[in-house]
Design brief:
Low-confidence stretches: 65-70
CATH superfamily of the largest domain: lambda repressor-like DNA-binding domains
Number of domains: 2
Distance between the termini: 35 Å
Shape: elongated
Organism: Peribacillus deserti
Keywords: DNA-binding
Largest sheet: none
Radius of gyration: 18 Å
Protein name: Transcriptional regulator with XRE-family HTH domain
Mean pLDDT: 81
InterPro entries: Cro/C1-type_HTH, Lambda_DNA-bd_dom_sf, TransReg_Diox_bact_type
Pfam family, one: HTH_19
Order of helices and strands: HHHHHHH
């Protein structure tokens, strides 16, 4: 997902119009539209105001290209996110990130056990 799409998703998720967000960060409505379409990139102070209003780390809104050490999201992950919707994917990934190793192992065991039970009934 591109930074402009993330911005739009977060804005809509908080039930903010472009005008309402623009007023809160002290820019014109057309500027928000340009950010969301990728025509314009916010400067650092604007990025920080967006971060504060949308209540997300500024790093989630960064308009920089990914670091070469971070692998690009592959097609399967992109399709999974599209299929479940970005909001659900973000919620799930945030929860999984908080799991301890033991909790993660338990969850994976539970998922695979249920998958095997379902496949046996098909």
């Amino acid at each position: 997902m591109q930074p402009g799409q993330i911005l739009k998703f977060l804005r809509e998720n908080r039930n903010l119009t472009q005008k309402a967000l623009a007023l809160q960060i002290r820019v014109g409505t057309h500027v928000i539209e340009q950010f969301e379409t990728g025509e314009k990139v916010p400067d650092i102070p604007t990025l920080l105001r967006l971060s504060a209003v949308l209540e997300v780390p500024a790093s989630e809104l960064c308009w920089q290209s990914p670091s070469p050490s971070i692998p690009m999201v592959d097609n399967e992950i992109t399709q999974l996110i599209s299929g479940m919707g970005p909001q659900r994917a973000i919620l799930i990934l945030r929860k999984v990130k908080e799991l301890t190793e033991e909790e993660f192992d338990y969850m994976m065991s539970w998922l695979y056990d249920d998958e095997n039970k379902i496949n046996q009934h098909l």
